[in-house]
Amino acid sequence: MTKYFLMLTMLLSSTQVFAWGDLGHQAVAEVAQQNLTKKTQKAIEGILGIAPLASAAIFPDIVRSDARFNGFSPYHFVEVYPFYRRVPSELRLKGKNATTVLELYPQIFLDHRNDRNARMIALSYFIHVVGDIHQPLHVGNGIDLGANLCLVKWNLTGETEDTQLSNLHTVWDEKIIDYLKESQRKKSTAKRFFGYAELAKYASDNQKAANYEEAKAVHYTSWMNDTVQMRNHLVYPDAAGQNKADVDFLRPYCGVAKHIAKYAQAGDRQALLDNYGYEGDINLLVNKLKTEIKDSDIPVLTNAYADQSLAIIKNQIYIAGLRLAHLLNTYFDRPEKYVLKQAQFRKGFKLEDLQIDL
What is the pLDDT of residue 217? Predict the structure, then answer.
C-alpha cells in the first residue's frame, strides 16, 4: 500500500480527530443549554462561570495541543468490534475510553468539596464526550481507527478538478458540516454568519417534542448501540445492507490497524477470532495488507452522500443535546446521590489524578 499508505499518513498527521469539529460540539451543548432547569443552570455556573455550555464543550479538543492533557486522549472514543450485536456491558469495565468519563466524571464535577479546576475539567469532558459518542465514527469498529484509515474522494460538483482526497473520519468531523454552513450561507442574503446557535436551531427544527421524554429512558450503552448501527449500515459508502463482520476487515479503500495486522501477518487465526471476531479467510486479510489501494477502489462521495449524512448528523446533534440535558438535570437535581463519601480532588490535585480508568 505504498502510495496511498503515505497519503493516509499525511492525512492523519495533518488532521486531529475531533468529532463534529468545534461547531458540532458547541451545537450539542447549545441544545442541552436550552433544556436545562434553572437549578442545573445555577449549579453549572458555579463551576464554569457565566460562559455558555458551548465554551466548555470544546475545551477537551483545545487542550489536545497541551502536553499535560496527553493522557486524556483515549476518552474521546470507544471501540465496539463489528461482531458485537449490541454494545457489551463489559465496555464499562475495561480501561480508558469514553465510557470512563460517562461513568466516573459525574462523581468529580458534582462534589463541591473538589477543587473547582478539577470540577471544570471533569464537566467539560463529560459535555464533550456525550457529543463524541453520537458521532458514528467515534464508536469505532476497532479495525480502521475510526475510518481514519479509509480513503475517500470528496467531490460535490462532479468536476474532476474539484476532487479532494480525504479520509472518511475527516468527512464526518468537518466536511459535511462545512457543506451545511456553505449551503445555509447561500440561502441567506441578510445574514451569512452560521455559528453554533444557528446549527443548534437547524438541528432542532421540525424535531418531535416527545424526544426529550424518550431521552430520559435510554442508558448510554443504548446510545452507543444506535451509533454502531449507523456506523455499520449508513456511514461507510459500501455499507448498505452489509451484515457480515468480515466486510470491515477487507474494505479495499481502508487500511488495517497495526494491532490486527500483526496477528494476520503471524498467521494467528485464533487471536483474530478471539479478539476481533474475524471468521474469514486469513489469506484474504494477509493479501489485503500486501496490496496497494487502487485509485479505482476509493469511493467518491457526492452531494447525495453528503445530504444523507447531513440528515443523520442533524438528528444526532439534537438527540445528543437532549440526552446531555437530561443527564445534567438528573445529576444536579440531587448531586448527593452520586458523589463519593471522600472528596478525591481537593486543592493541589494533579492532572494525572484525573486520568482514571474503569
Answer: 65
